[in-house]
Design a protein that fits this description.
Helix content is about 30%, strand content about 25%. It contains twelve helices and 25 strands. It starts with a helix and ends with a strand.
Length: about 475
């Protein structure tokens, strides 16, 4: 293909030069006639740049040197057609959760090394990955060094006026790192989510693990959210969205809380939504934030009209269920958004297998099923997969492993970067085909460029066509690889 492109360009250039100079050639040898103008063959109309990551790690987010061009030629290859006239959801971004543990290991780096790394992750230059969306914990997650909330009290004591409220647990690492990120990308969107309220607000548990939110404190807890958003804004950090509870059907994490669908709907419609309205807070409320096997939960919340009035949409994980279930929720409530907010990669997983599965489901699958975001779980941890709480995840592999100033880029880094580097916030998903082992998602950027992500779920190389506006480009993708094409 590369040879064809340059030969075509050469002969077109030669023909144009001859015509411009008035060159002619006798058809009979007597100088009496001229040949008709040269008719160009099928020509390249646009170049395609593309970046590749392979399951074998032979390429890691590597720009490929071969030039792909569209042509009117035809062949019998399988074809992925991209149609920019069919538009779907606007994309808010791609990223990770910045846990307190992530912020801690980042903050242990030297200032210069950290700035260089954060610029690589969140910057918009040619050498940056353009991460545009972050999820953070409201207080501790299970990947925090210690368990804390913003209003911890001695056992047996309560604080219904929230006089003790403080961001102190986040001020050492989370807030400083977020401020550095905001200098690099002031437009990054942040979703905040609690793993547990303060223990004194619970029934059924005297620890940060498990229990339920005491109805007596529904109003107080709504004020807790308001104070959090206001306190973060005072630090220069705008919270774009919240979910009322991480994994509300999982009371076994440390920390955690069980919050049933009826409880969440009641909390939103009677307390959280009205508290936001009274305080003129525009932060989005997104319900659920748990697995796709229980779409009955968000459907129940959205079916409560009083609760749904305050709800922007629903958030999902995929530790159980099927990614296509997101479309079922979207179809039931098409005016409400859907978000894919968490999936972890394991320290025991294989690079190739995780790359394939996460591209198919988290990145491509969620986009094809209306998600506005695609987020992997933890951004960074240390070589021992910490920090984490006593009872937190001991094998969650961060997108990065950080040991002092030494950074190892793990599979999650490449999963996210194959999308975030090329599809900025504000892009719109457009139509593209899936076929056999090749799964894809496409987007139209604000600058008019088209982006196509293709994952080869098979183990052997596959040659195929990219078709756009009746022209094709022929390309080959290695087995167990992901390639992002831009034109």
């Amino acid at each position: 293909m590369k040879k064809y492109f340059f030969k075509t360009s050469f002969f077109l250039s030669l023909a144009t030069t001859m015509l411009a100079a008035g060159c002619s050639k006798s058809s009979s040898g007597d100088g009496g006639g001229t040949t008709p103008p040269v008719t160009p063959p099928a020509t390249v109309t646009a170049d395609i740049e593309y970046w590749q990551t392979t399951g074998s790690k032979s390429s890691l987010l590597e720009k490929q040197s071969a030039i792909l061009g569209f042509t009117t030629a035809t062949n019998s290859n399988p074809t992925i057609t991209v149609d920019s006239t069919q538009k779907f959801q606007t994309i808010d971004g791609f990223g990770f959760t910045l846990t307190q543990g992530s912020a801690y290991v980042l903050h242990q780096m030297s200032s210069s090394a950290r700035t260089e790394l954060l610029t690589e992750l969140f910057g918009s230059g040619s050498n940056a990955n353009g991460i545009s969306y972050l999820r953070i914990g409201m207080g501790a997650t299970d990947l925090s060094a210690t368990v804390y909330s913003y209003d911890d009290m001695p056992f047996g004591q309560t604080d219904p006026t929230l006089a003790n409220f403080s961001l102190a647990g986040d001020l050492d690492d989370v807030v400083p790192v977020l401020k550095e990120i905001l200098v690099i990308n002031p437009n990054i969107k942040i979703l905040a989510c609690p793993w547990s309220p303060p223990v004194w607000m619970k029934t059924g548990s005297t620890t940060p693990k498990g229990g339920s939110l005491n109805p007596t404190y529904y109003g107080v807890y709504a004020t807790y959210f308001v104070k959090f958003i206001q306190a973060m804004l005072a630090e220069g950090i705008r919270i774009d969205a919240i979910t009322p509870q991480n994994e509300p059907l999982n009371p076994d994490n440390t920390p955690s809380l069980q919050m049933l669908a009826t409880e969440q709907a009641n909390f939103i419609k009677n307390n959280l939504g009205p508290a936001f309205a009274a305080a003129s807070i525009t932060t989005k409320i997104i319900c659920y934030d748990h697995n796709l096997d229980r779409t009955d939960y968000p459907l129940a919340v959205l079916s409560d009209a009083a609760a749904a009035a305050y709800v922007d949409g629903s958030a999902f994980h995929l530790y159980a269920g099927d990614i296509d279930a997101m479309s079922n929720v979207h179809s039931a409530f098409p005016t409400k958004n859907v978000y894919f907010t968490e999936q972890y990669t394991s320290s025991t997983g294989a690079f190739s297998g995780d790359l394939n599965w996460h591209l198919k489901n988290v990145i491509i699958g969620s986009l094809r099923n209306w998600s506005k975001v695609a987020l992997e779980w933890n951004l960074a941890n240390d070589p021992s997969f910490g920090p984490h709480t006593n009872g937190g995840c001991t094998e969650c592999l961060g997108g990065l492993t950080i040991n002092g100033n030494v950074v190892t880029r793990n599979v999650g880094y490449y999963i996210v970067s194959q999308a975030s580097k090329f599809i900025p916030a504000g892009s719109v998903r457009i139509a593209s085909d899936n076929m056999a082992n090749l799964v894809s998602a496409a987007a139209l950027r604000a600058d008019g460029k088209k982006v196509l992500i293709v994952s080869n779920q098979g183990t052997t190389a596959q040659t195929f066509n990219i078709k756009f506006k009746e022209r094709i480009a022929v390309t080959t993708i290695p087995g167990s690889a992901v390639v992002t094409y831009i034109w």
